[in-house]
Design brief:
The chain has about 90 residues and is α/β, with parallel strands linked by helices. It contains 2 helices and 7 strands; from the N terminus they run ααβββββββ.
Length: about 90
């Protein structure tokens, strides 16, 4: 339960904090998201709260303003992964 509260706190901070190259990526890393080097995460980005560990953002990626990343569409499926990478 404590982990979920801390996870939600970091998510809410990352949602509004400045620092797209340093503060926001670091807060999401602390939540369990795998984030590569030189990644920009804009403000108001929603990255799944239930399974942040299922998200991987590759090197040299940008996540734009008000983007949403979901790793599940059904409460019962936990082995799905979401990889975001440069094409």
């Amino acid at each position: 339960m404590f982990y979920l509260i801390i996870n939600r706190m970091f998510h809410k901070l990352a949602f509004i904090m400045p620092g797209g190259y340093n503060i926001r990526p670091q807060l999401h890393r602390m939540r369990g998201v795998t984030i590569g080097k030189n990644v920009w995460i804009s403000q108001y980005v929603y990255i799944d709260e239930l399974h942040p560990e299922a998200v991987t953002i590759g090197d040299d990626s940008s996540i734009g303003l008000r983007s949403s990343i979901f790793t599940h569409f059904d409460w019962g499926q936990e082995d799905q992964k979401m990889d975001i990478k440069k094409l």
